[in-house]
Amino acid sequence: MGKKLMFVSGGARSGKSSFVENWASENGKNVLFIATAERSDEEMNQRIDSHIKSRQESWKTIEAPLNISKYINDSHNIFDTVIVDCINLLSSNALLKLSKDSNQKESDDAILFQIEDLLNIYNKSSATWLVVTNEVGMGLVPPYKLGRLFRDSLGRANQKLAQLADEVIFMVSGIPLYIKK
User: Fold this and answer.
1) What pLDDT shows up at residue 88?
2) How far is CA 105 from the centre of its chain?
């Protein structure tokens, strides 16, 4: 198994996380799981802890809500498989750090900075990376500014990652559709 970037997109609860975790279980020997969710309240703490307990004990989990490279040093090279779950939470975390009167350029810059940070650490790695995101281009236009900023910036981030990825998988109801292979 050589280095590659696998980009997995789809709607909420479409099976993205299950797909990448199953892939890593079948193909990875040393797996690093990078979780981008923030522990914001008790319910979120329970969700995160439940997810960690459901993963294989041999996997290492790093919680990195922003600036993934700050949480990873050269030790990431001991891993042959890296899961990043997920870009939409990473993007949301970046957007929520901006002022309420931010514009689209500021939103794009903040989120694309996170993508560049991820790509920089990926480029230094020899592992296969499985990067999960939500597809945001198939829904309605959000009725509020923050939602529109998020949708447009995440859409741009997803396009960038899909262009650079070796494989792009779109999940529908638990079924993977290979868009790019």
Assistant:
1) 96
2) 21
Rounded to whole angstroms, how far apart are CA atoms 150 and 148? 5
- Widest CA span of the chain, in angstroms? 46
112 CB burial (10 A radius; 0-12, 13-18, 19+)? middle
Tell which wins on pLDDT, 47 or 17: 17
Quickly count: other Cβ atoms within 10 Å of residue 79's Cβ: 22
CA angle 62–68–73, rounded 5-degree value: 75
Residue 181 C-beta-side C-alpha neighbours within 13 Å: 6
Backbone angles phi, psi at 180, to 5 degrees: -145, 125
Angle at 178 between CA 172 and CA 181, to 5 degrees: 160
Catalytic residue, candidates 51, 55, 60, 160 = 51
Could you report the per-residue pLDDT of 51-69, keeping only the tens digit for each? 777 887 889 999 999 999 9
Q: Is 51 annotated in the active site?
A: yes
Q: How far apart are CA 15 and CA 170, in angstroms?
A: 10
Distance CA 131, CA 20 (A): 8
Pairing between β-strand 4-10 and β-strand 81-85 as defined by DSSP bridges: unpaired
Question: In this structure, are strands 31-35 and 81-85 parallel, antiparallel, or unpaired?
Answer: parallel
